[in-house]
Amino acid sequence: MTKNTKVAHGKGSVAIIGAGVNGMFCAYYLLKMGYRVKVLDKVADGLTSKNNAGLLTPSLTPAPKISTSEVIKALTGGDGPISISPLRVAADPIWFLKAAKYANDESRTQKIIDMGKDSLKLYTEFFGSEKINADVKKGVAALYSSTEEARRLSKKYHGKFIGEKSIRSLGYTELQGGIIFKDELSINPIKLFAGLREKIIELGARMEFGDEAKLYVRGGSVECIRAGAKKIYADKYIATAGSWSGRLLGPTKINPHIEPARGFSMLFSTGGRKIISAPALLEDYGIAIAQHSANLVRITSFFELQGMDHDLKKKKEEWLLGIIKKHLINYAKMKLIKKYYGFRPCTPNNMPVIGAAPEIDNLFIATGQCRLGVTLAPITGKIISEMIDRRPIKKYMWLREFVKN
Ligand SMILES: Cc1cc2nc3c(=O)[nH]c(=O)nc-3n(C[C@H](O)[C@H](O)[C@H](O)COP(=O)(O)OP(=O)(O)OC[C@H]3O[C@@H](n4cnc5c(N)ncnc54)[C@H](O)[C@@H]3O)c2cc1C
Questions:
Q1: Could you tell me if 320 and 217 are in contact, meaning their C-beta atoms sit under 8 angstroms apart?
Q2: 57 in ligand 1 pocket by Cβ < 6 Å?
């Protein structure tokens, strides 16, 4: 039997598809404004928004430069954090051609850095007012094997240069130069995810899990969502479906052009020992390390454009563990306890897709934040909620350019 449910009206009703960190921050701000919110997710446990590095580091936003030799290595299955499946290239050559065009284009980088900094302010407010314990650590390092590179980038990104001795005191070795971003943060994404969910439920969000939601569009509006046997009606709808956004938006004919970029997290127990004194990005390898608590270290890496496959190859795992062994002074004290994967929702031009859906009057889209989806989640939620409340933030009007059909 088909059950019809309507999201109850207060200021208005909003149905959000996708209970990742972006969907939940949209819900958070809308609930605070007095909207009635329903959040739907096909899975109850979360995936990418729990299994990421948890670095809120807008200064390190610029996509790492990728040389032609690295692209060849990525296509041919060589060592390293990046891999590209030739099958994916064949399936969507336009995405990869555009990605090649924009790979080393920094023209819009500053916009994303500024957006990330606004988001960081919102995180500070959020952690201050909501008392969510997400193992927040202030101060993140970017570490390099070249002193010159670290010096050059410290000037460019306005961080403090550190030398080999200071790097050792943080728990890392065989790295010659680094940059400290003293105001940027590391969090434990599993705790942020759980805390956010608890908070939005406390604020009145209704959450439903287990069914893939489908949009039903008629005459320029979303008429309802179907999830399993239910039809869900709301005044406004938000698609925050991460790497599945293209599939969800299919019926609207809007293509956000998202390619999933797989990454892995590994959790290590430490027996209560301090392994590092500051979270860091090993920039030469695309590896992130954070010690969330006395007994938990997280190592994260890989940017793999190979669809939704989630098998971590033994060779890749050995590469990652080999690098960590080389650069972590206390590596031997850690024990691997869990491995996770996630899919970053990436656009070919590195720009997020955040805003009102073209030609559909009650639909909003928030996806494509790729490597920065956690960093940008509060500002994404703020932008979308203010837009729904008919007070669009002028500063972010430029985002319209990237919400294309
Ligand atoms: C290894 C790794 C490291 C990372 N490190 C960082 C980092 O340090 N800092 C940072 O800022 N970002 C990082 N990221 C990126 C970040 O994790 C993602 O960009 C972010 O989590 C995306 O969040 P989201 O809410 O947009 O999507 P998701 O977390 O993917 O959530 C989307 C949800 O929508 C649901 N869904 C999809 N379609 C449907 C449907 N039709 N019906 C119902 N439900 C649906 C899915 O089940 C999913 O739960 C990392 C990612 C990875 C993989």
A1: no
A2: no
